[in-house]
Amino acid sequence: MPPDNVMNSPIKRIGFIGNHLPRQCGIATFTTDLCEAIAAEYTETTCIALPVNDIVDGYEYPPRVRFELVEKDIASYRSAADFLNINKVDLVCLQHEYGIYGGPAGSHILALLRELHMPIVTTLHTILEHPNPDQLKVLQEVAALSDRLVVMSERGVEFLQRIYGIARAKIDFIPHGIPDVPFADSSFHKDLFGVEGKMVLLSFGLLSSGKGIEDVIAALPAIVAQHPDVVYLVLGATHPQVVRNEGETYRLSLQRLAREKGVEANVIFYNRFVTLEELNQFISAADIYLTPYLNVAQITSGTLAYTVGAGKAVISTPYWYAEEILADERGVLIPFHDSPKLAQAVIDLLDNEAQRDAMRKRAYMFGREMIWSQVAQRYMACFEQARAGRRHSSTSSFAIKSLNERPGELPPLKLDHLHHMTDDTGILQHATFTIPNFHEGYCTDDNARALIVSTHLAELELVNGQSLLLMTRYLAFVAYAFNTETGRFRNFMDYQRNWLEKNGSDDSHGRTLWALGIVIGRSVNPSFRSMASSLFEQALPAILETSSPRAWAFALIGIHEYLRRFNGDRLVSQICDELSARLLRLYTNCRSDDWYWYETELSYCNAVLPLAMLVCGKRSSNDAMTAAGIESLNWLAKVQRAKGQGGQFVPIGSNGFYRQGGERARFDQQPVEAQSMVAACLEAYRNTNDECWRREAQRAFEWFLGRNDLNLPVYDPTTGGCRDGLHPDRANENQGAESTLAFLQAWLDLRLAENTLESAT
What we know:
The protein contains 28 helices and 23 strands.
C-alpha cells in the first residue's frame, strides 16, 4: 500500500484503455473524445491512450497513444499492464465492450486488469439484460477488479444491481459526452451538401444490418407523397468488420431497395467516416434525425446523444437508451420495424413546425449537462473517489504476484520449420536434421495433426492470415486421402503422390476425425466447415469397426468438437455414447489398486485416453466417466513424474513401453507424449478448476524446453521445429512433422487455455 501522501497528490497521469481514432468505431470516438476532454479541462494531467488493434498493421495513431494491444494476443494485455505499472500511471480508465477485447466474451481484458497496481474506473458501454454465462462472468469480474463503474443510463444502474449483483454505491451515472454546439437553424449548413430548400432526414453511424435503414427507405414513398422536397441522408462508412466479412452487400441492398421503391432521387449515401467538425455540420443541416434501430438491447448510443445535444427533432424506435433520453417529449418513439408508423411520425413533424421547434428546444436544454467539459469534470470527481476508496480499502492490488501466481511464459511462436516441411501437397513426414526428407513422403496422420494446428492458429489469429493457406493445404490432403469405396482414410503416400495402401491404420482414421471435428467446431470459414462436415459424416461410421482404444479416443475428441456446433445431431451423439462406453468398460475391467489404466500396457499418446473420458464425461454429465478420467490421469501423471525435488516430466519411452508388472522404458522419449499430457491436464483443469492440473500441464510443456532427464531443449527456437525426441545420451536432431506439430499443438493448447474463462479466473 503506498503512503497517504501519494494517494492525496493530484492525479497526474491517466491511462485510457479502449479503441482510439483513427480506428472507425463508436468506442474509438468515445475514448478519444473523453481523453481529449479531460486533457483540455485538466491541463496538468497527462492523458495517455492504450488502444486495441483488430488488424495486423494497426492504425496511424496520434502521439497520445503510447501502447497498442493486439486484440487476440493475451500476452499483449499482460505487457500493457506492465507498461502502465512501470510508467507510474495514477489511474486507469477502461472502456468496456465485450466485442473489442479478445477471448470468450472479451475475457482477455481480465488478464490486464488483474496485474494493475492503480485504481481502475470502468465505463460500461454494454450491459445486457440476458447475458450468457461467459458474459455474466466477465462483467462481474471486471466490476470486482474496478474501483468505480460508470454507466450512461439509469437503466444501466438498475441492471447492474439486479442482474449482476453490484452495489449501488460503486456505480456512477455520467451521461454520454457531446460537443458543445450552438442551437442553429437547419438551413445554415444545407448549402454545403447541396440540399438547399430540402427537408433533410438524417441517420448516421457505421453502417451495418440492425440499424433499420431499410425501414426508413420503405417509409419514404409515403413521406415523399406528402413532402416531395424530403431527402434522406445516410451518413457513414460501412462498419470495417462488415466490409471484411461481407463487403458492401448491405449498402448495395439498401440502394436496390431505394430504386425498387422509386425514391432513389430522395436518398443520398455518404460513404465516409467523417471528422467531428464535418459531423456537426451534417447534424446542423438535419431537420429530423432518425434512429430506427432494430434491437431493444442498446444501453447507450453516441449518435443519439450527439443529435439530442445539438437540439434536433428525433424519431426513434424504443430501444433502451432512446426511451430514456427521449422521455418528456424530447423526441418521438415508434414501434420496431414499422415503416407505416415511421412515415406518419415524419409527416406529422414536417407538418407541424411549432411542435418540431418545441421538441428541439427541450432536447437542446436537456443536453447542456452532457457537453464534454461537464462530463470531464464528473469523470475527474469519479476518479478522485476511486483513489480515495482505494486508499481506505482493506484490500489492495498493489501486491506483486509471485511466480506461481502467473502462468508460465511461452516461447515466441515461430513457424519457419512448419512452412519448410509443407509443400503444395501437404506436410512431409520426416526430416533429416532440419531438411525435409522426400524419400519418406507424406502421411494423413501428420496432415491431420497439421490441420488441427492450423485451425487453432486461425482461431487465435496469430500469423497474419498464413493459417488459412495452411488449412487449405492440409484439408485438401485429408479430403484426397478419403477412400469413398471403403469409408476409410488412406495414410501413407510417397513423394510422387502414389497411395501405398488401401486403408490406413485405425489410429490415423481416428486422428483425422479429430482434425475434422476441430475444423467444424472452431473454424469461422464456411467453406472449410462444409468440406470437413461432408468428410466427417462419411468417415465417422467406420470408427465403430475399429479396435484401437486410441482411435476411439481420437475420434471422441473430434466428436466433442463437432458437437460444440451441432449438439442436436443424434447419430453423432449415439456414436459418441457407444465409443465412450467402450472406453469406460476397458477402464473398469482393467483397473486395479496399483494399475489405474485402460489396458495392461502404457504405450504411446497415453494421455488421450483420460482426455477422451473427461470431454465425454463433461458433455454427457456422466460422473463415472469424469471420475475415471481424473483418476487415470492422476495416476499417469505420477508414473510420468521423476522422483526428487526436480520432479520433471518423464514420458513412457518408446523402446519397450511399460507393461503391467514389468519395467518401464525410460527412453526414447517422444514429443507426442508431452503434447497429449498438456492437452489432458488442461482439460482436467477445466473440469475441476484445481490449479494442480495447470501445473502438470506446464510441467509437461517444459519437457520441450529442457526440463527433462537430459536437461536438453527438444524445441529448437532457431527454426521453430522440434527434435524427434530424447535418446538415453542425446537429443534426436531430426525435426520431423510429428514432433514439430506436437510442440506447436502443445503451445497452442496452452495459449487457448489462457483464452478461456476457466483459466482466466
